[in-house]
Each structure stands twice: as structure tokens, then as C-alpha cells.
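[Q] Does anyone have a clean C-alpha cell version of this?
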Amino acid sequence: KTTGKHFDYRYLITYWFLLLAQKHSFTSALSSKFRTRQSIRSSHLQMAAVTKVSRIGKLTPSTTTFFLCDIQERFKPLMYNSETIISTSRYLTSIASTLSIPLIASQQYTKVFGNTIPECFANGQVDVDNLKAKNRIFEKKLFSMMTTEVESELEKEDFHGRDSVVLFGIEAHVCVQQTCLDLLEQGKDVHIIVDCVSSQQPFDREIALTRMESAGAHLTTAQSLAFMLMQSAEHDHFKVISKLTVGHMKLPNQFNSSYEKSNL
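[A] Here you go.
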């Protein structure tokens, strides 16, 4: 703008400052957007790394907890391959004891279905009583093992850093499956022991295993689990675990028999 024949520089200076302000605002916005994208990308990479480790499914004793789900007296004559479920439970609880892995057990409506079967442990009722003394057997009516009481137990120091759960018991399509899904929802790495999980009907068991695997759980066997936890023949407890394994393999395995018959 001119005043008479003279150019008024005040308007030019004002216009220049406005341009500078807009440029600074635009640059700040770009910088902020860039930082946000970098932060999101970094978070995604971290999440991907955690997910990848979780999906691989490696196990160590110091990061693992065992869950024994509802293997109770009343269910014994009703379960598909119940004798193998009990003997494999004994093998697994012995591994947990040998490797100092904490064990949590649940009992569904004990008044009706009875107590945990003592034969699930190497020392029978003595081991059951010891587990009770530690307050590690939880009464429940919820189908999932993840009751308020169990969740409170998992917050204690003994379970810090234990993000992997080895899950076994009955019934596969009800309590085991719902426990598995709850644990996965909480970000736990869940391992289902297929030769120590059952239902009354084999078809229910089969579909439950498929359902849990598709949700993100790892399917494995008791023996595979034992050697994964040791990782080497130089492990301090290799001889003890090997002896337990040999003894377990000498027992009849009803799942092997069913598998062999189905492939004739």
C-alpha cells in the first residue's frame, strides 16, 4: 500500500511476520507429526518383537507357571483316557517340583466333584496337602481358573516375570479352554499339554484343541515340554528328569493307542 507516492513498509513488515508465523506453525506440525510416526513405529516394532518371542513359544523354568485344572475324583470314571491324564499329571507335577516351577491347581465345586486326585502327584496325598498349605489349590464355580483369588495369587512376588503358563487338566472344551482364552487375553504365553488334556467326549476335546491353537496357544506334549525346559543334557537336573521320563514312557499311553488305531 502506498501513501501518496511513498510506500508504507509497515504493511510489508506485518505481512512478513505473518508468513514467518505460518511457516513456524507448519514446520512444528510437520516435526510433531514426524515424531509421532517415529514413536508409533517404535512401539509397533517393540510389540512385534514381543509377539514374535511369544509365538515362538520357548520355555524356561524361571518364566513359567504350571496350571492343573480340575482333575478331581468325580471326573475320573467319566473322562476320555482318564488313566493317562492322571499318570501324565504325575509326570508334570514331578517336573514342576524338580525344576522349582510354581504350580496352581483348581477344583470345580469341590462339594459335588470331590478333591484333586492324589495320584496326580508323586507323593500322593502328602503333595496335595502341601499344595493346600501353600494356598495353591483354589476352589471355584467359575469355569475358568482365572478367578479373582487366582489373579491375586499371580500378582505375588513368586510369580513376577512368569509370563508362560503350562496348562493341563479337564474338561478341555470348558474349563481348560476358558482358562486358556483368559490367559491369552492377558498376554500370557499358553502351552497346552495335549496328552494331559481331556473331555468326556473325544470330539469335544479335539475341537477344543483346535480352538485354543487358533486363538494363539501352543500345543505340545509332556515329554517335549520337559526337554524344552532343560534345553541341554548339561542341565543340573537332566538325570532326574530323564529318569522321570523313562518311567512315564513305560506306562500305557491311551492317546498313543487311540492314534495308532486311527491310522490302521
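[Q] Thanks! Anything notable?
[A] DSSP finds ten helices and eight strands in the chain.
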